[in-house]
Amino acid sequence: MKKIIEWFNHSDKKVPVGSETVDIDDDPDTVVRCYREAEQGDADAQYNLGVLYINGTAVAKKDDMEAVKWLQKAAEQGHVQAQFGLGSIYVDGKIVAKDVQTAIQWFKKAAEHGHAQAQFNLGAAYATGVGITKNLDETVRWFEKAAKQEYAGAQYNLGFMYEKGFGVVANTQQALFWYSLAAKQGDAYAQHNLGRMYDNGIGVEKDLVQAAQWYREAADQGDSYAQNTMGSIYENGLGVATDPEQALYWYNVAAGQGDAYAQYNLGRMYSKGIGVEQEPVTAVKWYREAAEQGDVDAQIALAESYADGVGVPEDDVLCYAWFNLAAVAGSDKAINAKKQLQERMLRQELAEAQKYSRQYHQQATH
Hints:
It contains 19 helices and two strands. The chain has helices spanning 29-39, 43-55, 64-76, 80-92, 100-112, 116-128, 136-148, 152-164, 172-184, 188-200, 208-220, 224-236, 244-256, 260-272, 280-291, 296-308, 316-328, 332-342, 347-364; strands at residues 14-17, 20-23. A two-stranded antiparallel ribbon has the order 1-2.
C-alpha cells in the first residue's frame, strides 16, 4: 500500500497579484506588489510570497524561514494550499525540524477543507500510526474522500485494502473497482494489480488478454515487476503470441532495474539460448546478480554452473556455498545436492564454503 506522505511542490513561477497573473521573470515589481498585499493580510498573497521564497528567483532570493513565516500566516487564515504546504514542510524536515505531529495537524486542516492530497496523507498517517493513533476506520474514511476526488493514490490504496481485507471486509469486487479507477488514471501500481487480477481471475473472469494489456501499461511506466511479467507473458504466449525476443527484451529491462526474478530469467534465457545465442558466461553473470539478492532459483542455477563448469571454472567450494544458501532458504533440491556434494569434500573445503556462504548471506541482508 502506498504510505508515502507526499512533498509540497510548487514550481510555477507565475503568481496571481490583484486581478493579473504575472510572470516573475518578466516583472520584478511582482514581488513588491505581492509583499505589500501580504503585509495587508491578503492570504493568497501571503501564500504566493511563501512559494516565491521556497523556489527562489532573481528578485526574491530563496529564503526558507521567510517562506515558512508567510505560509504560516496564510495557513492560519485558512488558506488550504498553505496548510498543505506547511504540513509537507514539517514532515519533510529539511526546512524546519521534522515534526510529524505538527505536519498531521496541518494536513488535517487542509483535508477538512477538501484538499485531496492532504486527505490522502491523513489517511496514510492513520494507516501507519505515525504521529497519530492508528485508526483504520479513519484511514478508509479519508482515502474514500480523496478517491472520490479522483486522487489515484487513494483509489489504489482502497483497492489494496479491499483485496487484502486490511481495515475492511475483503471484497474483490471493490478491489477491482478501485484498482480500475486508479489504473485508468495511469497509476502503475494499480495497472499491475489489475493485470494480476485478470491474470488469476480474482474478482473477475480470467482474461489473459486484458491481463497482458494492463501489465504492459505498468511496464511502460517502469514497473519492474510488470516488466518481468511481460517477459514471462511473451516467453509463454499468455494472452499474446509467443515471442522469445520480446521476452528477452522485457527481462533485460527489468533486470537492469535490479529485479532479481528478471535477472534469473535473463540468465536462464542466455543459458538455454531462448531468443538469443547461448552465452554461458552471460548466463552466470545474471544468475549471480539474482543470487546475491537472495533469489533461490538463481542460487541453485549458479551452484549447478560451478558443479558442471559451465560459464565458470568447476569449483566444489563455491558450488557448495551457493547450494548451502539455497538450502537455508528451504529448497529441498539444494538440501539434497548439498548432502551429496559434501560427501566428497575435504573438511577444509567445507569450512571455506561455509565462510563464503556467511559472507554472501551478510551481503544479501544488508
